[in-house]
Write a structure and sequence with these properties.
about 800 residues; alpha+beta; 6-stranded mixed sheet; binds zinc ion
Length: about 800
């Protein structure tokens, strides 16, 4: 990338740094944020051209309209902040730096009741060191000292001696995300003549990080667009004032690229149960890697930076690009290349859909057509699966000589040579891709113990285990490995914001949902943990997502920046926060029904996939079920918006139950829950527990599901806790108490029999006299005629019985 381009993008990324410096200053109004910023950058950045962006991005700035750089900064800032047309100028005069950022979800109205706004929710300026950042209902007071602290932390990181100068864009982007994602991009508050609610509407909801990143993305596009579209003028260094500021209606300088890898589900879950955990994890991670690989190849060929990645999650991504012939050529070339690679390697199971939509800068103000149009194009492309290679798809291939007697033991494929996969006492014969994905799963499990895992991208095959995609070799390491640094073309720091780890000039931050318990090596390890021997799969996703992006945000507010910021923040929950929530160690009160010390021990499960707006988790049934409740609780806290809800399905079964069946059962449960929304289906699918086939019996609104938990807790107080199971204490209750209660609940819910008398009799058999409060409570919940109560009781009894089973007995 040439220096002119880098200075423009770096300048755009840092153009508002003065806002933080000003808000931290004792004499903030002595200078404008532009002057504060320029001074600081001149002293610290070591790029005097980029530093000019700080005092050359505003219409009142000297020389802003005299150079093409100034024009690009001015215009990219405008387009990125189209949610606050013309408000910034007024900011200087009215000083309100105590304003906190509202949650990026605060413009999302009730998708079921148009016009109903959510209550206000705010983010604290300084992020927590540990745990999950929660939205608070009361606006936090932001003080000058908070800004001083923030600025100090930022400066310390910025000046870290381990990090090479000049700073790379990727490094600065990571710093901005780390420090400025809860900093309001604007702090003006009071508008004359507006009522209280109107003022609240005006509260800043776009962070300085998001604003700066989008500004840099647009500036990068402008640089290439104008250079390629007006080469003569650029060469002669003529001013492109009119071309930049007044883009003709018929011109479309920008391109939103959408990528989607299809058949992800089929690819991940259609495997046998042999070596399932490693294969699952490896396959899912492979897809993340593939998406990242495609994105970085695209950015490379388009000469753009990671600022231009608008979204990436779930084999799905959006990139903002310039619309020029060379860009279009580059996109097509990559598409063809990846297409042939995937076709060759995966028999057409995986396919990349790559579409783009060009647009006029006017659409930064309202991006709804863009988002909708692009997803329609992608849907259409998916319908035409492999049409261009129809002949090849239909060609019947002879099985490989190795496969005349047996196919790959993981994926059943039979056109490739089989390799032996050593797995202790049982050896598997598998195809090359399965072999590699299994290996990748193994590497992931190895690095999951590390706090600072690293992913290296290399131009040639390293000695150790690696994964190859096209001509790139990827290798996972537990931590920093100096011997690799000379050759690495990229160093991804997974979930790691520790600045001294960014010493390699090609380091970049990569959030990923990868949590896995240290002791979890094979699925069997998660089976026998507490109570009955069972594995569970949890699938969840955000309700009404389509509507959130189409109608739930008022048309006037659907700016490009806002839509990007909403999807970025949502993705952050699933890719980054989820690791912490699921592990359970650093959240306040993880669900822990039988006091297993989850906070100390973590959870026996593994994230197979998480990103975008959904997740797939597998592990011990109790951990999986409890974690579903925690995810719901923290999703609520994270969004601070009651109209954003999440639903899920949990499938519980035996260890040998095939993974694709688990996946299907959990998916079915999730679908059922999504009909109700804000719900969860417990024990979805044909569980070994013979619970009930009826979804109405197992699907609960979260509020009712919480009641189930409370009831399980009540029931367990009548039992005795052993190491890994609960048992009846016959001094307290009869041995068959809970079996009888289950029978009663079935009689009531399934046969409609009146059970009041029998319930009274059952209560009278309780021998425990020392805890009358619990007995009263027990009476209250089972001496009833209410179908909803019995539905809760039935699920809670079943759960209790599962806690009472001793392993596989
Ligand atoms: Zn700005
Ligand atoms: Zn295979």
């Amino acid at each position: 990338m040439n220096n002119g381009f880098l200075s423009i993008v770096k300048g755009a990324l840092l153009h508002d740094i003065g806002k933080v410096i000003q808000r931290a200053a004792d004499n903030p109004t002595d200078k404008t944020h532009r002057e504060w910023g320029y001074e600081w950058l001149m002293e610290n950045l070591g790029d005097n051209i980029a530093a000019r962006a700080a005092n050359t991005h505003h219409k009142e700035d000297d020389g802003v309209f005299d150079t093409n750089n100034g024009l690009i900064w001015y215009q990219s800032d405008n387009l990125a902040s189209s949610e606050r047309k013309g408000e910034e100028g007024a900011e200087e005069g009215k000083w309100h730096s105590e304003v906190a950022l509202t949650s990026p979800f605060s413009k999302i109205r009730n998708p079921n009741k148009p016009g109903q706004n959510p209550p206000h929710a705010f983010l604290s300026l300084l992020k927590k060191e540990k745990g999950i950042d929660e939205a608070c209902k009361k606006e936090p007071v932001v003080t000058r000292n908070d800004y001083k602290k923030l600025l100090n932390n930022f400066k310390q990181d910025f000046n870290n001696p381990e990090v090479q100068r000049p700073h790379s864009i990727d490094f600065l982007l990571m710093l901005f995300e780390k420090h400025f994602s809860c900093v309001p991009s604007i702090t003006m508050k009071i508008y004359g003549g507006l009522n209280k609610d109107e003022v609240k509407e005006k509260h800043p909801d776009i962070s300085l990080y998001d604003h700066s990143k989008i500004t840099a993305a647009i500036a990068g596009c402008m640089y290439h667009y104008y250079k390629e579209t007006y080469p003569e003028k650029c060469y002669k260094n003529e001013l492109l004032k009119n071309e930049i500021l007044n883009v003709q209606d018929n011109l479309e300088p920008y391109l939103l690229i959408g990528g989607d890898i299809s058949s992800v589900q089929k690819f991940i879950y259609t495997i046998t149960s042999k070596g399932a955990l490693k294969s699952l994890k490896g396959r899912s991670f492979f897809l993340e890697l593939l998406a990242e690989h495609i994105i970085s190849e695209l950015l490379d060929k388009l000469n753009l930076t990671r600022c231009n990645i608008i979204f990436s999650g779930g084999g799905h991504f959006y990139i903002l690009s310039h619309n020029t012939p060379s860009a279009e050529e580059a996109i097509q070339a990559i598409k063809d290349r990846i297409d042939s690679y995937l076709f060759r390697e995966f028999q057409g199971i995986l396919q990349l859909h790559l579409e783009s939509l060009c647009f006029h800068p006017g659409e930064f103000v309202n991006a709804s057509r863009l988002w909708r149009g692009l997803s329609e194009k992608l849907e259409l492309s998916k319908k035409k699966k492999w049409q261009c290679r129809l002949a090849e798809v239909l060609e019947v291939e002879m099985p490989h000589a190795d496969c005349l007697k047996q196919s790959c033991e993981i994926c059943f494929r039979e056109d490739l040579a089989l390799k032996e996969l050593g797995k202790g006492d049982e050896n598997l014969f598998v195809c090359e891709p399965c072999f590699n994905q299994h290996l990748l799963g193994e590497m992931l499990i190895e690095i999951s113990k590390s706090d600072y895992p690293v992913l290296y991208k290399l131009p040639f095959a390293p000695q150790d285990k690696f994964i190859r995609i096209e001509n790139a070799y990827y290798q996972l390491k537990k931590g920093w490995d100096k011997s690799m640094h000379l050759d690495a073309v990229a160093v991804y720091r997974i979930n790691d914001l520790t600045v001294k780890h960014y010493s390699h000039p090609k380091s970049m931050y990569l959030p990923l949902g990868i949590y896995q318990h240290d002791n979890l090596k094979e699925l069997g390890d998660a089976s026998n943990v507490f109570g009955i021997n069972r594995i569970a799969v949890l699938r969840m996703d955000v309700d009404n997502l389509g509507r959130i992006f189409s109608q739930a945000v008022h048309e006037d507010y659907r700016t490009f920046s806002r839509m990007a910021s909403i999807s970025r923040y949502l993705n952050n929950f699933f890719k980054y926060c989820l690791n912490t929530i699921i592990e359970g160690k650093e959240i306040d009160e993880p669900s822990d029904i039988v006091q297993r010390k989850v906070k100390e021990n973590g959870r026996m499960l593994s994230i197979v996939y998480s990103g975008g707006d959904d997740l797939f988790v597998i592990g011990h049934w109790l951990d999986v079920t409890e974690t579903a409740f925690d995810i719901n609780t923290y999703f609520e806290k994270y969004t601070g918006n009651p109209f954003m809800t999440i639903s899920g399905g949990i499938a519980v079964n035996e260890e040998k139950y095939p993974v694709y069946q688990y996946a299907r059962d959990a998916e079915e449960g999730e679908k059922e829950a999504k009909k109700e929304k804000d719900s969860v289906t417990l024990l979805a699918g044909k569980s070994a527990e013979k619970f009930t086939e009826k979804f109405t019996e197992k699907c609960f609104k979260w509020a009712d599901a919480e009641e189930v938990i409370e009831r399980v807790k009540l029931f367990t107080r009548f039992l005795r806790r052993h190491d890994t199971f609960l048992a009846v204490d016959e001094d307290r209750i009869p041995k068959t108490f809970f079996y009888r209660l289950l029978a009663l609940s079935r009689q009531f819910t399934e046969e409609g029999v009146l059970v009041l008398l029998k319930a009274a009799y059952l209560i009278s058999r309780i021998k425990m006299r020392d805890n009358s409060e619990d007995i009263l409570k027990m009476k209250e919940v089972i001496m009833v005629h209410n179908a909803d109560e019995w539905k809760i009781t039935k699920a809670a009894v079943l759960w209790t019985l599962m806690l009472m089973r001793r392993g596989g007995d």
